[in-house]
Design brief:
This protein is α+β, with helices and mostly antiparallel strands. It has 17 helices and 17 strands. It folds into 3 domains: about 120 residues, no CATH class; about 180 residues, no CATH class; about 110 residues, no CATH class. Strands 2-1-6-7-8-9 form a 6-stranded antiparallel beta sheet. The chain has a 6-stranded mixed beta sheet with strand order 10-14-15-3-16-17, sandwiched between helices. A 3-stranded antiparallel beta sheet has the order 11-12-13. Helix 1 packs across helix 7, helix 9 crosses helix 11 and helix 11 packs parallel to helix 12. The longest helix is centred in the middle third of the chain and has 17 residues. The relative contact order is 0.12.
């Protein structure tokens, strides 16, 4: 699980830290950086997928087909042009060699020509928390790093467009290939260094790879799909066949039916999956009185809720899901069900959810643990930079929340006013 993400000169963040929990909520006005945080996670996901830095920021094509959309704004807007680059720092807790270990990964990207077009890695660190890095590579270092020897030996060359962690994870560079380097690393870090270096690289890359950014669309959710297409698309494609696979497990099917019964006025009792003439199937909700409602006729909110259920309960779920404006399409009176679902699933420790919201009602419904992991994004008047503030760390927030309704405080702008007062107070002190 990612515990903290630090952004430096990334998009409109000069320097900001986001503390994360099993379920992290981001609130804030438009243009305060919530979608830019999503872009930062997408950048990490691009590293996990094995893409080069230009491919992550731009686009990735395989056999002429686009498989990756770049980061919004491209090289011109991924950082302030005056900064000539950006960095991301990740603190992560993952299962490592049968134990839970804390690790860190830090990298920076620099633009190396006057037009900000040539991108390469500036520096990169990887290690266990509280310990010196297992590798600490820098483009500007005078002394040649062990990775440089291997890069030259393998003719991978410069500029460095792939993060070193990718090259270690895939075996393109391996210190054990060189006896001198192997001996030197063992002398510095101990006999387990080569195992730790490879295993930790695989662990971090695996965590970055296992991310999804769902933007569920009612039209895509309504489309029939062929049996065996059991991966939910980013827009909700293949919903029917993912639900079909889930329903093969009687316990999971019962849970699905119960959630839909709670969400809607329907007295839902079953799901049917009706094939069309070419073999595609479409999910149909069945009520106790026999009435049937296909995905074609189901409401947008019901389909969106089913899409979230399918993502979180489907086969081989992702480690991290990012949802923007998670309340969209859900009736305010049923938002508590959405929160209960996500809090229940994330409490098991296998799935992490990050979500943005504009809903005041959502804030008042969250559990105490989720509120601990809720953050405000904001900008100070007259300043271009965005900031992140953990809500419960606003002075006197915990005491005020006991007496005042958080949703009303949010509607009145109390959160923004409080952080503005904090920052302005520090400036004038």
């Amino acid at each position: 699980m990612i515990k903290k993400l630090t952004l430096e000169n990334f998009k409109n963040f000069k320097k900001a830290e986001l503390e994360l929990g099993p379920f992290t909520l981001l609130v804030g006005a438009n243009a305060t950086g919530k979608s830019n945080i999503r872009d930062a996670f997408r950048f990490l996901n691009g590293i996990g997928r094995g893409y080069t830095i230009p491919e992550i920021i731009g686009e990735k094509y395989i056999s002429g087909e686009r498989v990756w959309r770049g980061i919004r704004g491209g090289t011109q807007e991924i950082s302030n042009p005056a900064d000539k680059g950006f960095s991301l720092y990740v603190d992560i807790t993952e299962s490592y060699q049968s134990t839970i270990s804390n690790a860190y990964y830090h990298f920076a990207v620099v633009m190396t020509d006057k037009d900000n077009r040539l991108l390469q890695i500036l520096f990169e660190y990887l290690g266990f928390s509280g310990q010196k890095p297992l590798f600490n590579w820098s483009l500007k270092e005078d002394n040649m790093h062990w990775a440089d020897f291997l890069l030259n030996e393998k003719h991978l060359g410069y500029p460095i467009r792939n993060p070193i962690i990718q090259l270690i994870e895939t075996g393109k560079i391996d210190p054990s290939d060189d006896n001198f380097l192997q001996k030197k690393l063992i002398e510095e870090f101990g006999t387990n260094v080569l195992i730790d270096l490879k295993s930790l690289s695989k662990t971090i890359i695996g965590a970055f790879r296992s991310m999804r950014f769902l933007d569920l669309d009612a039209d895509a959710l309504r489309m029939p799909s062929f049996p065996g297409q059991n991966v939910l698309g980013d827009r909700g494609e293949n919903l029917s066949t993912v639900l079909y696979d889930i329903c093969q497990d009687k316990q999971k099917k019962r849970i699905l039916v119960e959630w839909i019964r709670e969400l809607t006025p329907m007295d839902a009792s079953d799901f049917e999956f009706v094939p069309d003439q070419v073999g595609r199937i479409l999910v149909t909700l069945v009520e106790k009185n026999g009435r049937k409602t296909s995905a074609y006729s189901a409401s947008d909110g019901t389909l969106r809720f089913l899409g979230i259920l399918a993502a979180l309960m489907g086969p081989d779920p992702t480690k991290l899901y990012f949802f923007e404006e998670i309340e969209n399409g859900i009736h305010p009176g049923r938002l508590h069900l959405l929160l209960e679902l996500i809090e229940q699933v994330t409490s098991e420790g296998k799935i992490q959810v990050v979500a943005t919201t504009h809903s005041p009602q959502l804030l008042v419904l969250v559990s105490e643990q989720t509120l601990e992991n809720a953050s405000l994004t904001y900008r100070l008047e007259g300043e271009p930079d965005a900031h992140i503030q953990r809500i419960v760390d606003i002075p006197n927030a915990r005491e005020i929340f006991k007496e005042e309704d958080l949703s009303r405080l949010y509607e009145r702008g109390w959160l923004e006013n409080s952080v503005h007062f904090m920052k302005n107070g520090k400036k004038s002190a």
